[in-house]
Amino acid sequence: MSTSAGSLTNRRSTRQIMVGKVPVGGGAPITVQSMTITKTADVEGTLQQIYALAGAGCDIVRCTCNEIEAAEGLAQIVPRSPVPIIADIHHQYKMALAAMEAGVHGLRLNPGNIRRPEHIKAVASEAKDRGIPIRIGVNGGSLDPELYDKYGGKVTPEAMVESALREIAYFDEVGFDQIKISVKASNVPLMVEAYRQLSEVTDYPLHLGVTEAGPLPNGLLKATAGIAALLLEGIGDTIRYSLTADPVEEARAGRQLLEALGLRERKNVDLIACPSCGRAEIDVIDVANRAMQAFGERKIPLQVAVMGCVVNGPGEAREADLGIAAGNKRGHLFVKGRNVAVVPESEMVEALVEWAEFIHEHGAEAAIARVDTKIAEREAAKDRSMLLDAQGDDVNHSHDRLVEIRKKI
Ligand code: SF4
Q1: What is the CA radius of gyration of the chain?
Q2: 200, exposed or middle or buried, with CB in 10 Å at 0-12, 13-18, 19+?
């Protein structure tokens, strides 16, 4: 797979299905999914969560449909939802029929939990008549016991793929092909291999996820490891982080991963910051965190840098749209690598927000044009040379240390 610098271009080609108005597969932008954790019968509570998820970048939301009250709730939720709703179905195939009656835009069936062919085909026939897609959601933890035994009492990638293919065969029998598939496991290498194998044998769109990834931050790392590995290979059409956390965290994580990989356009600020070191003139962690909070969910699709020192900061973050570097109790603002202003250290975060809003509205050129960059450059040069004089090139005193070490040998 070849990639162009800074973005992934080659993706495995898949068929396209529509989940409501949202396309999945077939070259459509990769979508972010999450799932509500309210009782679906609690219509207002569930809608509140759906709106929060949509606000955090979620494209499709799944709600459980485990009882008739949940199906009744869906009938009221679907028309008021800002994003397509998928009903999650496990043991009772009749809940799938009820959810379709309620107007959902898609279903998720777990082949390990609904196993009677006549039930599977009844759901697929109804979905076909209504034009509703179904995700075949294989889960390593709830694999069909027969497949588990067939593969030596273990959950293997082959067993998971076979589970999906068996379900597809039932769907084929009734001429249903509005399918997407997932083969999730909580074990990352297992899940990655299952998706790889699946992508070799089918061109249905794939829904990626590491199931039961767990609480933050470990769950985030595990899910990212699995999902990113596959996306980098061009595999995957829609993703879900399964975190033991507020589902809004799942939506944010999904969105941020896709933006970081260049697979979705940036919606919010991408805050980059130096890791800090002995040269830092400020508490970089504190300033970066305060900046993150100040930008919050503002729709400003810029890369903004917080750098600990004016000696190296502006150069290292010259690709950022906007940045600030500390020096001599002052913050040196730079736009596209050009020094534009100097503010007191205590006003660094406010200045970043103000300049980011201006650039977002008027562009970087206009931001640079509104100031005399020569003054800002001169001030930055002054603080830079003051720091270099005070600290020298060797701020971590490695030369002195070496001399001491050698004395001991
Ligand atoms: S920008 Fe300055 S403070 Fe931050 S890591 Fe680089 S040298 Fe250290």
Answers
A1: 26
A2: exposed
- Looking at ligand 1, which residue's alpha carbon is closest to its atom 2? 309
Mean pLDDT by runs of 10 across the 409 residues of the chain is 52 96 97 98 98 96 97 98 96 96 97 90 97 96 92 95 96 97 97 98 98 93 98 97 96 95 91 93 94 92 95 92 94 95 96 97 96 94 89 63 75
**Which CATH code, of 3.40.228.10, 3.40.50.620, 3.30.413.10, 3.40.109.10, is assigned to 270-391?**
3.30.413.10
Between the CA of 392 and the centroid of ligand 1 the distance, in Å, is 14
Query: From residue 145, how far is each of 142, 148, 378 by CA, in Å?
Result: 8, 5, 73
Tokens representing residue 248 in the block: 């809004």
The fold for domain 17-260 equals: TIM Barrel (3.20.20)
Q: What's the CA gap between 340 and 142, in Å, rounded?
A: 58
The atom number, within ligand 1, closest to the CA of 278 reads 8
Residue 7 has φ and ψ, to the nearest 5°, of -150, 155
Residue of the nearest CA to atom 8 in ligand 1? 277
Q: What's the CA-to-centroid distance between 311 and ligand 1, angstroms?
A: 8
Q: Which stretch of DSSP H or E encloses residue 24?
A: strand 22-24
For the chain, give every domain's residue range.
17-260, 270-391
| pLDDT the model gives residue 7 | 54
Rounded CA-CA distance 387/395 in Å is 10
Helix (H, G, I), strand (E, B) or coil at 354: helix
What residue ranges line ligand 1, CB within 6 angstroms? 274-277, 279-280, 307-309, 311-313, 316
The string over 370-395, giving b where at least 16 C-beta atoms fall within 10 Å of a residue's C-beta and e elsewhere, is eeeeeebbebbeebbeebeeebeeeb
- Percentage of residues in the chain with pLDDT exceeding 90? 84
**Phi and psi, residue 316, nearest 5°:** -70, -25
Q: Are strands 106-109 and 207-208 parallel, antiparallel or unpaired?
A: unpaired
Tokens of 191: 């899940």
270-391 has the same fold as 17-260: no
